[in-house]
Amino acid sequence: MKKVSFKTLGCRLNQYETDALVTRFHQAGYQVVDYATPADITVINTCTVTKQSDQKSRNTINQAARKNPAGLVVVTGCMANNHKEQLEANEKITYVVDNERKSQIVSLVDAHFKGEVVHPDSYSGDVFGFETVDKSLHTRTSIKVQDGCDNFCTYCIVPSVRGRAVSRPLEEILENIRRVVDNGFKEIVITGVNIGRYDFEQYNLERALEKMVELPGDFRIRISSMEPDGFGPEFYKIFQHPKMAPHLHLCIQSGSDPILKKMRRMYTTRSFMNIVENFRKKISDFNFTTDVIVGFPGESETDFAETARVVKEALFSHVHTFRYSRRKGTRADRLEEQLEEGIKAERSEVIRQISEENRMLYMESMLGKTQRVLIEKVSDKGMAQGYGEHYLPVQFSTADSTKNVFQDIMLDKVNSSDPPFIIASI
Questions:
Q1: Any alpha helices (H) in 243-340, and if so which ranges?
Q2: What is the pLDDT of residues 143-159, one digit of tens each?
Q3: CA geometry: angle 155, 159, 164, nearest 5 deg
Q4: 291: which strand partners?
Q5: pLDDT 10s digits, 161-178
Q6: Is pLDDT at 284 greater than 90 in this prediction?
Q7: What are residue 200's DSSP bridge partners?
Q8: CA 241, 242, 247, 248 torsion: positive or negative?
Q9: Residues of 395-407 as b/e, b for ≥16 C-beta within 10 angstroms?
């Protein structure tokens, strides 16, 4: 039995696709081992959204080659689309597989060990051609409902590495959910590149979610990262269903309208805040997290001050802060007034500090409330860890060592470690 290991960088979509590959390799008779363990095959699912992502991917590739000098190194993901020729010229890499053919990696590896001479491009592409996950590297699983993006933000290369927007047939999604629930998964993360733009036949995302929550079983649905467009003013209603987790990672990117216009983001700060306020009028403790880009070309002190104000006002419990990274082929790369890295670092630190303050405020506001926690692991000392429906990390003492089950708990106090978590009781 040959051994295969995986390393995933980047987004939840990559994580889902890795889990689907784990399942398929397992079903094909391979032994899935930890990345630190020597393996016959190492699959690296890369990210290329920033220069830092590219560097992390390159470092991981070199690490895998050193760790398993006689093994296969298969590189896939967005970097495989963005820097394909460069990667194919790297003698440490056995195969470079683009996103369109990622689901065919097991067939490619099988053919290799049978002595066949094949090239990844000889396989047909299918961005939805993944197996239903039954063996995962995580306690929750994702369902891919959409791929690609048509927004063409001026800083983003995703449309060039993931392609144009395409939506998965709803019945395939529903069947996928039925099967992963049968496989024992309790939390399902709806993922894609721009899932707010889901559009299949008469179904948009809201109507598709209505069908998902009607499915039988003891599970909950969490939405992955979304853009603040593509859904209607009553989108909040679906989150009133007990199977929907009251949490959204809604990407604002900037709190300055002039910068949003330069980014080609199709909303204003006011329209974004209207979404947040509308949700919280109906679900007062709804948890919003977000992405922010600092140091975009031409971002003035006034622009950044507006971003800091909006981040604080929105009370995001977490802010994933990116320093603007120039990407060749994007319109933002050609803009004047490119900012120095030192300014980006200073602004990133300001947002980080606001994010930490917000997180503590939000956690404290939740104390005394009940949560339904999905237990992810239990220590030898009987300390259970997991996440409640609002996506807050929780720990509590338990006499039961069972994982991947729901437990109703009371939120008692905040442990201000780094990162902080909430101590709870049954």
A1: 257-263, 269-282, 301-314
A2: 899 999 998 999 998 88
A3: 150
A4: 320
A5: 888 899 999 999 999 999
A6: yes
A7: 203
A8: negative
A9: bbebeeeeeeebb
3-state SS, residue 352? helix
| Cα gap 384→184, rounded to integer Å | 19
Report pLDDT digits (tens) over 197-211: 999 999 999 999 999
The two structure tokens encoding residue 377: 């692991």
Q: Could you report the per-residue pLDDT of 236-262, keeping only the tens digit for each?
A: 999 999 999 999 999 999 999 999 999
Q: Where do we find the tokens 């009251």?
A: 246
Q: Return d(Cα 162, Cα 92) in angstroms, integer.
A: 25
Map tokens 């807050």 to a residue: 392
- Helix residue spans in 299-378 (DSSP H): 301-314, 341-365
**Side-chain half-sphere exposure of 195, counting CA atoms within 13 A:** 26
Q: How confident is the model at residue 228 (pLDDT cuts 50, 70, 90)?
A: very high
Angle, CA 362 vertex, CA 359 and CA 365 arms, to 5°: 150
Neighbours of 419 (CB within 10 A): 10
Token output for 8: 């995933």
Query: Can the peptide bond before residue 419 be classed as cis, meaning omega within 30 degrees of 0?
Result: yes
- 365, pLDDT greater than 70: yes
Q: How many residues does the chain have?
A: 426
Closest listed residue to residue 215, CA positions, set 248, 190, 193: 190
Confidence (pTM): 0.81
